[in-house]
Every structure is written in C-alpha cells, then in structure tokens.
Amino acid sequence: MAAASPSSDTLMSIEDVQDSLNRSRASIYRYANTDPRVLNPPFNLGKLNAEFRQDHKDPLLFHPQEVARFARDVLRIKGVKVNVLNGPQNATEELLTEMLAELRQIRLGLTRGPSVENTPSLES
Q1: How far apart are CA 66 and CA 44, in angstroms?
Q2: Does the pTM exceed 0.70?
Q3: Residue 64 located in a structural domain
Q4: Quick check: 61 and 78 in contact, CB under 8 A?
C-alpha cells in the first residue's frame, strides 16, 4: 500500500514521492514527465506529472492525487491511500487568522447597528 503524505504543504517533493512509493530517487526521476527542452510538458498518462513550474531551476513538486493516480494506474499498486497532513501554522498564517478574527468582530459590530451612545439625541 502506498500512502502519499506531504509534510506541511499540499504538494509533494521528490523525497516525499520516493518515501510514499518506496522507490529510489533515480526511478522517481525516470517516472517523472520532464523534458530538458520543455519547461512544462503536456500531461502524459503513463508518467508522473509534476505541477507547473516557472523556471527549470524550480524543484519538481507533485500533487498527492497525481502520485496516487500514478501508483494505482501505472505501477499497479493496490490500496493506494492519500493522506494530506496539515503542519503547524507559520507566522503568516497566524497573522492572517488574527486578521480574520478582527474582521469578524468588526462585521459583527456593524451588523448589530449603532450603539445608544453614538446615536444623535433628538432633544434640542
């Protein structure tokens, strides 16, 4: 049974694929749909298709579902299971979570309507 499980990201590195398929690094490169002349070759059912890259120097990254498809359909591994694990939040994610909580408080305050203190008095 092959389990595709990336560390903290949704995409898998060569090492993650190697561990999940129990294959050597060289064989993963052999399976990968790459071409030195084409940055992002067209989808190939018989190969392990990497995610789109901006530059040839970018590392090959694979979607867990693609790794599972390749293991099941090409390598004929039975009982393929994909586990996507969420890692601990980084500083950016923590800041975004705090900002979201603050925005929700602001929205809640706006939907409740103006408070009694802020309403203009009709006595003049």
Answers
A1: 11
A2: no
A3: yes
A4: no
> Tens digits of per-residue pLDDT, 33-45?
998 899 999 999 9
Q: Is residue 18 part of a domain?
A: yes
Amino acid found at 119: T
Give the alpha-carbon dihedral of 49, 22, 57, 43, to 10 degrees: -10
Of residues 25 and 115, more confidence is placed in 25
Instruction: Answer with the residue of higher pLDDT: 78 or 98.
Output: 98
Token pair of 77 as six digits = 């591994």
Count of CA atoms in the C-beta half-sphere (13 A) of 66:
25
- Taking the C-alpha atoms of residue 124 and residue 114, their distance in angstroms, rounded to an integer, is 20
Number of separate domains in the chain: 1
